[in-house]
Amino acid sequence: MAGKREVGEGKFSPKKIFVYMSLIVGSLVSLFPFYYMFVMATRLNREINQVPPPFTPGKHLVENFQKVLNSIDFFGAMWNSFFVATTVTLGTLFLSSLAGYAFAKLDFKGKSILFGMILVTMMVPPQLGLIPQYYIITTLGWLNDFKAIIIPGLINAFGIFWMRQYIKDGVPYEIIEAAKIDGCSNFRIYWNIVVPMILPAFATLGIIVFMAVWNDFLWPLVVLRDPSMHTLQVALRSLNDARLLDYGMIMSGTFWATVPLLIVFLLFNRLFIQSLSEGAVK
């Protein structure tokens, strides 16, 4: 009959209930490892090794974290990681967006070939470049220097690809042409017109790059020998050097090393979701 709602279109239709239940279950499954890491960070070794293991927080969070502070320079390593990750992220956002603007809106000879070569580098495992990159860093005398981590990380093939695609679809050619008629240079067009229009893309790429640099372990371990310059992931490794592993201490250090990543994501998640949703609509 006219005016009747079809089955499955109501406020609490079976289809909607199934979707929301699936999302809830998926969220719980995704959050459980982080929750259990927190549980282990609040327990002692003898409690963690019980059968069955505990699934509720204990009372030893401060005690375990104090053991971490006694074993490594946790806050010094966290500052090193924050400095390196922030510097690489800001530099990557600037250079990737600048290159993305050039590939998306400027015409120059060999553009397609050059962009294709950049895409090819994304298919090469980063471990294959470890030895030649180490040789270059040694030749330049950058061992035990943050430049060895920061400068190679400023050029990001995925960042260029991401920015090129976003600018190509999100910045109309008409605005670019109007700015050129008004006498704007290419850099002024980029800085005053393109940058304000691609803030969601900045947020998405920034979160990805910051997390990747923050969690990087292999390259900082290779080039940073001085313990005072260790990043957080390298410093946490030394917690495993003892013959008797203190899982509560290790999980406490890992838990607090993850908190800054959660803060960064929560600060920029609105722009992150906006960027993904805009891409889906387009």
From TrEMBL:
Keyword Protein transport among UniProt keywords: no
UniProt-listed Pfam families: BPD_transp_1
Keywords, comma-separated and alphabetical: Cell membrane, Membrane, Transmembrane, Transmembrane helix, Transport
Any one GO biological process: transmembrane transport
UniProt-annotated location(s): Cell membrane
Family annotation (CDD domains): TM_PBP2 (cd06261)
GO CC, alphabetical: plasma membrane
Primary location recorded for the protein, binned into one broad class: membrane
Membrane topology: Multi-pass membrane protein
Keyword Transmembrane helix among UniProt keywords: yes
Domain ABC transmembrane type-1 residue range list: 78-268
Membrane-spanning intervals of the chain: 17-38, 77-101, 113-137, 149-167, 188-214, 247-268
InterPro entries with a match to the protein in the record: MetI-like, MetI-like_sf
SUPFAM superfamilies: MetI-like
Family: Belongs to the binding-protein-dependent transport system permease family.
Name of this protein: Sugar ABC transporter permease
Native organism: Sutcliffiella cohnii
Lineage of producing organism: Bacteria, Bacillati, Bacillota, Bacilli, Bacillales
